[in-house]
Amino acid sequence: MENTFNLKKFLAEGVLLKEEQLSEIKDSDQALGFLFNSEEDEDGMIDYNYDKDKVIEVIKNLGYNDAEEIAKEIMTISSPVDELEIMRNKTGDPDMQIEDLTVGMFKQGVEDEFEK
User: Fold this and answer.
1) What's this model's pTM, rounded to 2 decimal places?
2) Total count of domains within the chain
3) pLDDT per residue as tens digits for the range 49-60
4) In-domain check, residue 4
5) In a 10 Å sphere around its CB, with 0-12 CB exposed, 13-18 middle and 19+ buried, how is residue 68 labelled?
6) What is the domain extent for residue 106?
7) Less Cβ crowding at N or C end of the chain, within 10 Å?
8) How far is residue 98 from each of residues 9, 10, 16, 65, 73, measured CA to CA in Å?
9) 102 has which bridge partners?
């Protein structure tokens, strides 16, 4: 009997790599560049947008069964700039910059707002 599992195909599909990449992300890692990205518009203004797939992955990793619904709600009612304002208020640091936001801060916000 021949083994039909193809490791190269499995890796190429990214299934294993995605799980490993997520486990490498630490709570102390910067959220900018992972959970959200910056984009400069034609006027030179910088806009920040969530990476939907990464947000869903992090929420699933927290153990939420309805991760897609939670991610949709977060991305509909807030932006990364809103997250910054919340953290400024929470920490009492009005000088906090968007680069200071971490994956752990995002996770804590999700856990504070949504029941499992």
Assistant:
1) 0.77
2) 1
3) 999 999 999 999
4) no
5) middle
6) 27-113
7) N
8) 38, 36, 31, 29, 21
9) 30
